[in-house]
Design brief:
Elements lengths: L1 H31 L3 H12 L2 H17 L4 H14 L5 H13 L4 H7 L2 E4 L6 H8 L3 E3 L7 E2 L5 E2 L2 H9 L2 E5 L1 H10 L2
Antiparallel strand pairs: 1-5, 2-5, 3-4
Helix pairs in contact: 1-4, 4-5
Length: 186
C-alpha cells in the first residue's frame, strides 16, 4: 500500500507540474495577443489546416511535457508566435524548441548577456561549450594567432601574439543564435 500511495502522489505531482507548464505556455501566448486584430490573424492561421494544426499541437504538448523548468514553456510560446507571424518556419521552431530543451541553468543568460565571449588559458565555461555544441556560438576567426597577410601568407601581429600567450579565444553568436535571442527578447 505504501508503494501504491507513493505512485499516486508522484502521478499527482507530475500532472500538476505539467499543467503548470501548460499554463505558462498559454499565458505567454495570451500576453502577446492582447490586440484583437492580431489574435484573429493567429486564430485564422491556426484553424486553416486541421491536420497540420493537430500535428503542431501534438508536438507542442510533447515538448512542453519534456521541459523541466517553467521558463522554457514561456520561451516556446514566443517561438510559436514567431512561427505564426511567419518569422520562422515550423522546422526552425522545432530546432529552437530542442535547443531550449537542452539549456541548463545559466545557458540563456550566457547567450543573452553578450554577442561575444572571451576566454583565457583555455578556461572555457561549460555553458559556452554547450552553446557551441547547440550551434549558437562559434569561435571567431580572428581569435587565432595567425592572420592572413593578404597575399596568401600568414603573419603574427603583437595583438595576435598576446592572444596566443594568454590563450585567448573569442566566441561569437551565430546567426542561428542571434535569431533565437531576437525571438526570446521580443
Amino acid at each position: 500500500s505504501t508503494v501504491t500511495s507513493l505512485y499516486r502522489i508522484g502521478i499527482g505531482l507530475k500532472d500538476r507540474h505539467n499543467l503548470k507548464k501548460l499554463i505558462v505556455f498559454l499565458e505567454g501566448i495570451n500576453a502577446k495577443t492582447a490586440d484583437e486584430e492580431v489574435r484573429e490573424k493567429y486564430v485564422a492561421k491556426f484553424y486553416s489546416n486541421n491536420r497540420l494544426r493537430d500535428q503542431e499541437l501534438e508536438y507542442l504538448l510533447v515538448i512542453i511535457d519534456r521541459y523541466t523548468t517553467y521558463d522554457k514553456p514561456a520561451f516556446l510560446a514566443k517561438l510559436y508566435l514567431s512561427y505564426l507571424d511567419g518569422y520562422i518556419s515550423w522546422d526552425r521552431l522545432i530546432a529552437y524548441s530542442i535547443v531550449i530543451d537542452r539549456f541548463l541553468p545559466g545557458d540563456y543568460d550566457t547567450l543573452h548577456k553578450s554577442s561575444s565571449h572571451t576566454t583565457h588559458f583555455n578556461q572555457i565555461s561549460d555553458s559556452i561549450l554547450r552553446l557551441i555544441s547547440l550551434g549558437l556560438l562559434v569561435e571567431t576567426q580572428g581569435s587565432s594567432s595567425l592572420i592572413s597577410d593578404g597575399r596568401g601568407g600568414l603573419m603574427v601581429t603583437t595583438t595576435s601574439m598576446e592572444r596566443e600567450i594568454t590563450q585567448e579565444k573569442i566566441y561569437s553568436r551565430t546567426e542561428f543564435g542571434n535569431i533565437l535571442i531576437s525571438i526570446l527578447d521580443y
